[in-house]
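does this look right to u?? acetyl coenzyme *A version
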Amino acid sequence: MFRTHVAGVGSYLPEKILTNYDLEKMVDTSHDWIVQRTGIEKRHVVADDEGCSDLCVKAAQRALVDAKMTIDQIDLILVATVSPDYKMPATACLVQAKLGAKNIMAFDLNAACSGFIYGLFVADQFIKTGAYKHILVIGAENLTRLLNYKDRDTCILFGDGAGAFVVSQAPDTEKNYLMTAHAHAEGAYAELLWAKGGGTRHPFTQQVLDEGGHFMQMRGKEIFKNATRTMAACCREALEATHIAPEQLDWIVPHQANMRITEAVAGQFNFPMEKIVSTVHETGNTSAASIPIAFDMAYKDGRIKRGQLILLTAFGAGLTSGSAILRF
Ligand code: ACO
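got this back:
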């Protein structure tokens, strides 16, 4: 068996910024309310001509540079997203063409905010078994196009962006590797967070559009409770699987949904907040992109260093959840 080594990391945030003060002019909300309830101060928003695949390409190119690799070395492109360019084909195929990759496997994975951990889990299987040597795992979202800017419950929370890892095959003696990954789903709670119109169950009709059924809808309090419950359980699972004590971790990079969710999870393990990477104040919730974006920001500003022990954990629509521990 081989081991999965994170060879390179990159991310991209669109230039345009939407602040809480901008939102005050759009819905009945306030900067103070949003900061107090979520920790979010601003979020990045795609340009009119930017699609999810464009975000992927920029993050992937940066990850390839970091890995000192070229696209022709990549064997598989995996894009985790709930906001693809099109219903079909997969955004990963568009990314493959835009990056000029050879005729390699490319597919999308929909696990909402847990998508990047699901992606790492899947990539790890291909690498451990020797099927592939180098895989681009990308988390990317264009969520602001799924938001109803008349619904203050949701439109304040989300932003756009992408993050990517190049993961590579390493010998089973490699010290810096993905030590464990876990992924779960509780489909019985699917209705707590969904966009129910525009699929095949409720295809686009004038009624769907008039009722805003194509926008994301969320039951915030239930999501909050389930997020803290499942993320804590997933952290516990990864720690137990590796026999690592919380105090041995250098960093935790949680899904960036809400500062209060992060604090509640950290509190269950007595993780000091200084060990937790938080970017939610400047990115909002970027769903599948949030972990690789936060990871990359902390790596590029020197907080995360090679050789450190890092726990990732996420929760999202589905309800999906997951965790991973890697020595970077
Ligand atoms: N601005 C101002 N007031 C608001 C807003 C807003 N944007 N939204 C709701 N309110 C009001 C409510 O109407 C309510 O008013 P009332 O007391 O007069 O009835 C009051 O604020 C309190 O509302 P609550 O819903 O009780 O607020 P809560 O403290 O639960 O916070 C929030 C709401 C921030 C959405 C919280 O429930 C939350 O963070 N949930 C998790 C959401 C999340 O992270 N989702 C994504 C995770 S999964 C994924 O990442 C895909």
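The longest helix spans residues 220-242. idk if thats expected tbh
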